[in-house]
Amino acid sequence: MNICVFLSAADLDDRYTVPAREFAELLGRGGHTLVWGGSESGLMKVVADGVQESGGRLVGVSVDFLAAKARTNADEMVIAKDLAERKALLLEKSDAIVIMVGGTGTLDEATEILELKKHGKHTKPVVLLNTAGFYDGLRQQFQRMEDEGFLPLPPTELVFFAKDAVGALAYLEESAGLL
Q: CB of 70 within 8 A of CB of 46?
């Protein structure tokens, strides 16, 4: 399965890198392909290293202004002209999406993917890996959106909140009929 992961390129502490590395190793050992932003820095590097060292493939989609930071030994690397094209290519090349911890770029990617799913533009499973409760506030906001009539369907039909790497991958494999 080609699993797109949206995540930070920042250098982060162990409470974020250890679970990310665990997910990456599970992905690689499971024979899956990582589809990611292609960066060779921060948490993106941690995940790419873990997947590659565990036997998985790497498909990167970088963007023109970040091409100098792209991983050189990925199995495939595409350079998009802008962020909009990058997001479209990441979605196109993936069978499922995992959202890990990140900043505004990750949040932008997550909301676009969820909006597209809400409108039926894709049916791919989406998982928020809620490491160290990072997305607790977002979960609460989704519930408020539903309670106050802003969502046409329950948040559970848009995204699965996983507390750990094992739960995230199990949900994706079950969604894909691999379990």
A: no
